[in-house]
Amino acid sequence: MAGRDDGRGGRRPPRRPADRRERDGRRDSFGARLPWETEAPWEKTRSGSASRTPRRPAASSTGRGRTVKRTAKKQAPRKRAPARRPAARVLRSRRRLARLGSPLRRINAGLLVVVFILTLFTGRLVQLQALDSEEYSLQAQTQRIRTQILYADRGGITDRYGVPFALSVDAEDLYVDPTKVPATPGRLADGSAVPSKEQAAQRLAPILGVPVAELQEKLASKKRFVYLAKQVSPEQVRAARDVGIPTLGADPNPKRTYPSGTLGASVIGYVGASGKGLGGIELAQDQALAGRNGKQVVEIGRNGQVIPAAAERLQNVVPGQDVTLTLDSEIQWNAQRAIEAQVEKTKAHSGSVIVMDPATGAVLALATAPGFDPAQRRPTGATGLGNPAVQDVYEPGSTNKVITAAAALEHTTMEPTTEMAVPGELRRYDKTFHDDVPHDTWNLTLAGILAKSSNIGIDLVSEKVGKEQLYRSLRDFGFGERTGIGLPGESRGLMPAPDTWSGTQRYTIPFGQGISVNAMQMASVYATIANDGVRVEPSVYAGSKAPDGTVTKADAPERRRVISSKTAKQMRLMLEGVTGQHGTAQKAQISGFRVAGKTGTAQRVNPDCGCYRGYTASFVGMAPADDPKLVAQVVLQDPKKGHFGGEVAAPVFHDVMSFSLQHEKVRPTGTKSPKIRVWADR
Predict the structure, then answer these.
(1) Do residues 352 and 421 share a domain?
(2) What is the pTM of this model?
(3) N or C: which end of the chain has fewer CB within 10 A?
(4) What percent of the chain has pLDDT over 70?
């Protein structure tokens, strides 16, 4: 092909046709297109196919300066390709793609990503370990560390010979983390089955004696710690663990038991759910019995078990002291059996029996009916959970006449044989007084007035004593003040001052109406007479024994003289007449023993109406009368079948005193009761 003119008169050499590599871009030695010669992304069509530039016919070189055209097949006319972007922009794009496609660049980018991730983890680790370590440590500790109360063993309560009335046995409080109990059955990692909340409640209910609904409610709680049952036996705990409930655990919490059941319950008392004394000796001696609970910090395992090795003791346990009472369980049993039977027989509202040693003030028996079971803390009758012998008051009636008679012997010139005319009725102020049986004028001695229990006769005696002296005598014998027996809730009774007495009270108080006392106060009056006129403070507490064996005896009881020994002896002789042939308490007699005592039949104040309705029947006595070793009192409130003291109370005294004398190995003195002159004209 001829060359073209170069403008200078010469000819340019002919243009050599571009070979395929030049047309398609620069390629390597193997013919592959170099990376930067690839099509740029924007050279794609919208449909995604690359726009192509129509190729020129291929030419092959046959020699220097010569080309041979290849024969191309006829093709359909192609559309004109879109214009290419400017070369500079294509070049920049290709350089960018070249940088990204470099293996070294890819490695560097990957390393940067790894370093970034490691930096994040390192920062979080620093935050947990250094910055927030205390907070997270505290949270973790809260979940696995718990302060556990170590309950002290409550001391026992025994009779004077060590027979237990109350003691503590091993028991545990069962707890669980409800959030760890699944809603559906499952299995632990070791393959053991885990019950659902519903299944757990169904299986635990018969073991613990807790209603299913109550357990379901506790297991549904969102709290992390819930007690399922308290003070259950170790056997129950083992059975509960076999159910397979996660986090189920138990804390020791000794349980209070009463081996003798209702025996002496009104004296022993009871404890509440927290183990604190709420009545009787359990309350009165609670500080000594309770000891002091301890504390320790424990670690809880994954399944709720306590890890002993991790325990840290914060406060040591101090066990409670054992308390010894003056009660004799045998005498107590007999007295309780007797009063329960008589309350049932006479259909009485309630009743009580007291047996005591007059020389020491020790109460050997204090029984009430109906009683209660201290373990259940539920009353079985009208007396509730208290002790009516010290808490309830009543008008003593004729048993109070001994104080009027003793005041006459002590402070006037009267003697047991002093004669008095006792009319069938006595008019004083606006009231006419009568005896319990109608009669003409009786000519009685002072002893006879007691033997016949004459209200009119004792009123005539009180006129000789005077109301001021009578009041002082009543106070000296302990009326209007607590006896000091050491039982909670004791009533003082009602003892009005003489300047407040009405005209009628001036004549009702001498025979025991218009004042009120509790049963222990009246028993103490007769114990004073039995003890030669010296009142010894009654008590049921004998002492205590510490865990180390140290014995602490009760303080010596308070003693004070109330009447002279002579007056006390005269009173005992006169009271023998009450149980004699002409007295009102022949049913109180005991074969082989001399018995002295007094009946009482008083109108009973009904708390419902505040009026007199029903009677209080009583008998208080001592034996042997010439050297008293024991005093016993019987009180029946509102008996329906019989109401005289000599009729319903004296027989109970007979049974209780007979047993007690035999139990205490008291022998008859062998002396005969002197003839007591009752009638002045006989």
Answers:
(1) yes
(2) 0.76
(3) C
(4) 80
